[in-house]
Amino acid sequence: MSDVVLVTGASRGIGFAIATAFKAAGYQVAAAHRSASDEAVLKAAGFFPVLCEVTDSTSVDAAFDTVEAALGPVTVAVANAGVTRDGLVLRMSDDDIDAVLQTNLAGAIKVARRAAKSMVRAKRGRLIFISSVVGLLGSAGQVNYAASKSGLVGAARSLARELGGRGITANVVAPGFVETDMTAALSEERQQTILSQIPLARYAQPAEIADVCVFLASSDAAYITGTVLNVDGGLGMGH
Predict the structure, then answer these.
(1) For residue 190, is it within any domain?
(2) 145 catalytically annotated
(3) pTM for this model (two decimals)
(4) Strand 125-130 to strand 168-175: parallel, antiparallel, or no bridges (unpaired)?
């Protein structure tokens, strides 16, 4: 039986692309999502859909229990679920801060904690965290988001040290600007400003982020841990 990967935030965008790439690579894919309305789409794509609210430990544990009862132990976990609540810090509410940190950072740690239980028993596993170039560069108006994404680096490197002796790796993928509905909605002027800062002068395709995740889960990446892989067209080089 093929390995099992659980991807959070898999219902759209980068998460859906990651789930698709793992399926194409022969994995059994558990697609974690927050809305029941996403289930039919995920099932039609050939994934095993499972409800999971990453901010809720009970929900995270239940999702893993459901997946492992149906497919077997999760040996690859991709913590991709994330939200934004952008705004200048002087106008940022406590809720804006808490919602982003709880989902993007605490939620990822909760997913890793539950995934590690199965991986320790199996004496192998891959933890992959989806961060952002913003977590390395910083971004005005995104103090909460940047903090949450940079926090993933510390979390992954700590997990790499804590779990490495059990055959478990922990790595971070830091995408730059990716061609999604969100970037398509930006004004032409804003898009040109962004592109002017990217050495490769284009946005990434979601599949380019997904392929790096599949690589990190493969045997070719068995000796890579505690690493941040920038997939940003050169935007964040040196950071």
Answers:
(1) no
(2) yes
(3) 0.96
(4) parallel
